[in-house]
């Protein structure tokens, strides 16, 4: 389980090949756990009261000073450190579905459009749940069974 969580970090900027659903989803679980733990620490340490007080001071940007200090800065560093592996594992996951990695950019841009973003996000989520193509495809061998023959229906 742990090896699946850190595999995208080992393949840091590897945009070629394919990634299984297991690799993608365990890395997503790792990110959720990190954000949950540090977010809980941030708000348990009085972060909510500090943000409320900063917001009442008349300066709307004071809240960002609270968010990016201490534990909030650790969260920002984690996000920055895992940005490239997140993009890479998404591209490899699309490759597993025999889709170009450029689709990820298309989904990202479409998710910026109000109301369309809900449909696009649900579609992308469903796409990530679907099984990859069996056997080798144009992006490499099947990560589930790398020794499988090219002809699946034999």
Q: Can you walk me through this structure?
A:
The protein is mainly α. It has one domain. Helices cover 64% and strands 0% of the residues. Helix 1 (2-10) crosses helix 2.
Total domain modules: 1
**Arithmetic mean of pLDDT:** 85
User: End-to-end span in angstroms?
Assistant: 33 Å
Regions with pLDDT < 50 over 5+ consecutive residues? none
- Count of beta strands: 0
Q: What percent of the residues sit in helical stretches (DSSP H or I)?
A: 55-70%
Which percent band covers the strand fraction?
Answer: under 5%
Identify the notable features of this structure and list them briefly.
154 residues; mainly alpha; 7 helices; elongated
Secondary-structure map with pairings?
Blueprint: H1 2-10, H2 21-56, H3 62-67, H4 71-81, H5 83-96, H6 102-110, H7 116-129
Helix pairs in contact: 1-2, 2-4, 2-5
Summarize the structure.
By secondary structure, the chain is mainly alpha-helical. Helix 1 crosses helix 2. The model has no long low-confidence stretch (mean pLDDT 85).
